[in-house]
């Protein structure tokens, strides 16, 4: 057994992990107690990382060798690395010669390491001579970058995690921190417990789990953040709560902003934002009069057509009140991905250059050209993410290189993205997982190493650089991303006839050393840092200049900002509504966001069945009143339609959702949610609907608001099939079922897991709906993939009525018979109890006839355990409610008793906000009566 310190590959908190391995296999993971980001804690995703690296997952999901398609649409064939890279270099060189360097584009990822990012940036801008390199961080953090630069002068979060201990007021806006950054939320809980006087304000259109800790909740209308912030500043000016001396000594531009916010009266703000005037006043008072106010914000501000304005307007509040540059205070943007910060540091976006230099600045271009030893860096602005795929769809960009990201799932306006991937003459996908939707469009697939196999560094939200270390060798022929890019670049140099040798790197450290030199004299100067220092002293924050022993904890404590005059700048940001307004035809505002236990397109988390326990299948969440008005019952299928497309989803009533709003998790792509339209066109996940409209400054798309209409669907024939499968076969069955989803108007296919009998088991769920019963051969295929085409399978069929049922029972070691697999076709009304019978592995020998009887009522003995709340210990809501009936005392005492009895919330803590809500939902009086 070996132990290797590394960093989690999920969100931007940057948690340290200790990887346990034996031989070539990762066997376990736990939090690193010495890492200053998490001190040993891990969330539900991080604590299951080892499961995503199992031999079974690797064998069935990983891309293990280079693959090339001779013809689009056909299966790719294995080739050698030399053949693959020579092919790629030849194709890219041909496009550059025939159409110019701007006919190629590179789309990379915030999950790449800093070293990977640096090489790709140099490859595009230094060798090819194009600025057409952008990243999925454009969808995540570009508005935060632009907001910081407009106001403070540099893309540098001024606060740190330790500021949570010093804050007297937390202003959380546009961030479901409890789910998106769970370990940071644990630190918020700690801060509140240590300082009960800490005031927490949460502004969000949804009543998320983060709201559970709030003293004040502002359920603003989508896209109205700028109006909220201006209204708060209006009141601060009226009440004399601004810091005139700080404004005079350290800022510029306040008079112009005052003129704008003068019109943002409490009446106007209350009407536009949809909140009471009293709550607006309370929020302004808490923010301005607190000794130290810390703002935490994320995609609710960033993913907007006014994203930069939202960021700047919030920072305006900090400058106006002097809430910056001191412990516990400052505007703190929470990074969405593990190394979005590192990508920004090396200039891995279309408008940036290394070390926070600006592409538009001739002096900055000259500095980078001199560092790289090239004649010049091109000045023409590059295509950003949305623009890049629009250009490829229009035939302007002819070759695409996509690394460590899945645009065929994650980009908005999927019709345009897929048209781009189909029209491009040559598409390279550099990827660890062969299962992503984008892989299907690739002419060339290059296998990349991933977590547990990679070497390099990442930077988290608080500017802290951590080492990423390999615990095992990459499987098959997979290589580190930076080394793939270097090998391609060296070949491309020869193909283009260049005599330069821009890529001499032999290790990740040699790449990083060049990046380090590029930061000399810049705001993020790390010339005093080295791999050796990271090994001996642990993760470090920047800046850390040559001669310094540690990095800077927080910035701007001296009131001097990285602007020409050293002053911060107020930005006059008029409020503008969302890009596409709700209208009569599209009366709902669709919001997208994260689930607690899933990550991005689920290429990694989607391999772990237990992570589907909390949210098992895709749904659209709606307000119960909206559902009642439209006569939509719980679980009914609805058409969710925008100007770009339509998908089908089950509807679910949710107390989180306001009137005329809807929410669908961002993770559901065609790998898990699919179907076909009446014309036969494939419906590909939630981003078939979302708008490509973006902020004119940051170019970040408005993924938090899309006008949609929601209409009840009439699909009378339904199907549900579930099966436990032998170890290692669930993922195989899931992949085989995925193409079948497109044969139905609606279909989902997801894994599930259970350890009801003390042993972890894996299964697959397939759900579909149609106007009429499908061809029997299609259902036969589904049965076969789920182990229902066996001699011992019980069957019932009524072709005239479109009814079909199958069930297979297996004798267990204790002599009882358990339901191993079932299919309900036509009438699925018995789903609840039959699915419970299977999931809970309850004795089923008495129910053979009922299993085959359409509409059969649930036996009294079959009781569902309910929805999983705690993924770590597989604790469901029914057990929690039952235990609460035996608890008494204060809410904190009841929570402690609950945790002591069931262990829920005692491992990763991700379920604690939900547990607290359940405790509060059961009043003490009711508990006393129950006792």
From TrEMBL:
UniProtKB keywords: 4Fe-4S, Iron, Iron-sulfur, Metal-binding, Molybdenum, Nitrate assimilation, Oxidoreductase
GO terms of biological process kind: cellular respiration; nitrate assimilation
Entry's transmembrane regions: none
Example GO molecular function: oxidoreductase activity
GO CC terms of this entry: membrane; oxidoreductase complex
Family (UniProt): Belongs to the prokaryotic molybdopterin-containing oxidoreductase family. NasA/NapA/NarB subfamily.
The name this protein goes by in its record: Nitrate reductase
């Amino acid at each position: 057994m070996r132990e290797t310190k590394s960093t989690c590959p999920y969100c931007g908190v940057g948690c340290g992990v200790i990887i346990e391995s034996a031989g070539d296999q990762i066997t376990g993971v736990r939090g690193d107690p010495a890492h200053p980001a998490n001190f040993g804690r891990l969330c539900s995703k991080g604590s299951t990382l080892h499961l995503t690296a199992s031999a079974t997952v690797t064998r069935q999901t990983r891309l293990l060798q280079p693959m090339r398609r001779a013809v689009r649409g056909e299966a790719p064939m294995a080739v050698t690395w030399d053949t693959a890279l020579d092919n790629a270099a030849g194709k890219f060189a041909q496009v550059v010669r025939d159409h110019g360097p701007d006919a190629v584009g590179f789309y990379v990822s915030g999950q790449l390491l800093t070293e990977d990012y640096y090489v790709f940036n140099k490859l595009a801008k230094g060798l090819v001579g194009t600025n057409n390199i952008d990243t999925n961080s454009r969808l995540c953090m570009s508005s935060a970058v632009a907001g910081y630069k407009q106001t403070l002068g540099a893309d540098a979060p001024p606060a740190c995690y330790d500021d949570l201990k010093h804050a007297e007021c937390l202003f959380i806006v546009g961030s479901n921190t409890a789910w998106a950054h769970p370990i940071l939320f644990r630190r918020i809980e700690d801060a509140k417990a240590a300082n009960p006087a800490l005031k927490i304000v949460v502004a969000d259109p949804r009543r998320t789990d983060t709201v559970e800790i709030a003293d004040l909740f502002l359920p603003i209308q989508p896209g109205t953040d700028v109006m909220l912030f201006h209204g708060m500043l209006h009141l601060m000016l009226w009440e004399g709560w601004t810091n005139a001396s700080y404004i005079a000594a350290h800022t510029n531009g306040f008079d112009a902003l005052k003129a704008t916010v003068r019109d943002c009266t409490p009446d106007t703000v209350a009407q536009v934002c949809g909140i009471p005037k009293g709550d607006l006043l309370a929020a302004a008072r808490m923010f301005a009069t607190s000794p130290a106010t810390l703002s935490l914000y994320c995609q609710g501000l960033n993913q907007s057509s006014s994203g930069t304005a939202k960021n700047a307007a919030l920072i305006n509040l900090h400058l106006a009140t002097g809430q910056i540059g001191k412990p516990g205070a400052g505007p703190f943007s929470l990074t969405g991905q593990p190394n979005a910060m590192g990508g920004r540091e090396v200039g891995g976006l279309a408008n940036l250059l290394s070390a926070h230099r600006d592409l538009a600045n001739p002096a900055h271009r000259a500095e980078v050209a001199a560092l790289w030893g090239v004649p010049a860096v091109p000045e023409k602005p590059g295509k950003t993410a949305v623009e890049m795929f629009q250009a490829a769809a229009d035939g302007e960009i002819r070759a695409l290189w996509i690394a460590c990201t899945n645009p065929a799932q994650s980009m908005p306006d999927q019709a345009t993205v897929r048209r781009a991937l189909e029209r491009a003459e040559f598409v390279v996908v550099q990827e660890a997982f062969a299962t992503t939707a984008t892989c299907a469009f690739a002419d060339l697939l290059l296998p990349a190493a991933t977590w547990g196999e990679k070497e390099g560094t990442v930077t988290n939200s608080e500017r802290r650089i951590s080492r990423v270390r390999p615990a095992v060798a990459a499987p098959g022929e997979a290589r580190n991303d930076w080394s793939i890019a270097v090998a391609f670049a060296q070949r491309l140099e020869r193909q283009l006839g260049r005599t330069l040798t821009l890529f001499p790197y032999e290790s990740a450290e040699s790449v990083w050393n060049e990046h380090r030199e590029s930061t000399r004299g810049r705001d993020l100067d790390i010339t005093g840092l080295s791999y050796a220092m990271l090994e001996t002293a642990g993760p470090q924050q920047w800046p850390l200049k040559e001669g310094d022993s540690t990095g800077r904890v927080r910035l701007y404590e001296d009131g001097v900002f990285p602007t020409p005059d050293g002053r911060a700048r107020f930005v006059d940001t008029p409020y503008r509504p969302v890009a596409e307004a709700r209208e009569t035809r599209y009366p709902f505002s669709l919001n997208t966001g994260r689930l607690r236990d899933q990550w991005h397109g689920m290429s990694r988390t989607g391999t772990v069945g237990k992570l589907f326990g909390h949210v098992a299948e895709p749904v659209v969440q709606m307000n119960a009143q909206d559902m009642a008005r439209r006569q939509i019952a719980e679980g009914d299928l609805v058409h969710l339609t925008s100007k770009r497309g339509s998908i089908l989803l089950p509807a679910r009533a949710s107390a989180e959702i306001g009137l005329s709003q809807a929410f669908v998790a961002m993770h559901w792509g065609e790998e898990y949610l699919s179907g076909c339209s009446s014309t036969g066109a494939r419906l590909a996940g939630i981003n078939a609907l979302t708008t490509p409209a973006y902020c004119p400054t940051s170019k970040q798309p408005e993924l938090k608001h899309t006008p949609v209409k929601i209409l009840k669907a009439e699909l009378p024939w339904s199907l549900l099939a579930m099966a436990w499968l032998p170890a290692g076969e669930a993922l195989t069955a899931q992949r085989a079922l995925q193409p079948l989803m497109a044969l139905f108007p609606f279909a989902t296919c997801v894994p599930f897991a259970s350890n009801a009998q003390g042993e972890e088991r894996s299964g697959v769920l397939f759900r579909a709906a149609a106007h009429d019963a499908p061809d029997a051969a299609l259902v036969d295929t589904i049965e076969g993939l789920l182990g229902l085409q066996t001699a011992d399978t019980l069957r019932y069929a009524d072709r005239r009525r479109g009814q079909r049922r199958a069930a297979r029972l297996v004798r267990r070691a204790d002599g009882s018979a358990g339901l191993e697999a079932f299919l309900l076709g036509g009438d699925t009304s018995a789903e609840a109890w039959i699915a419970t019978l299977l999931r809970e592995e309850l004795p089923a020998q008495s129910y053979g006839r009922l299993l085959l009887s359409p509409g059969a009522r649930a036996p009294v003995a079959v009781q569902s355990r309910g929805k999983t709340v705690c993924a770590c210990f597989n604790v469901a809501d029914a057990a929690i409610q039952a235990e609460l009936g035996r608890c008494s005392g204060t809410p904190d005492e009841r929570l402690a008793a609950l945790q002591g009895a069931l262990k829920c919330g005692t491992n990763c803590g991700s379920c604690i906000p939900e547990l607290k809500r359940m405790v509060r939902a059961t009043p003490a009086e009711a508990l006393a009566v129950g006792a």
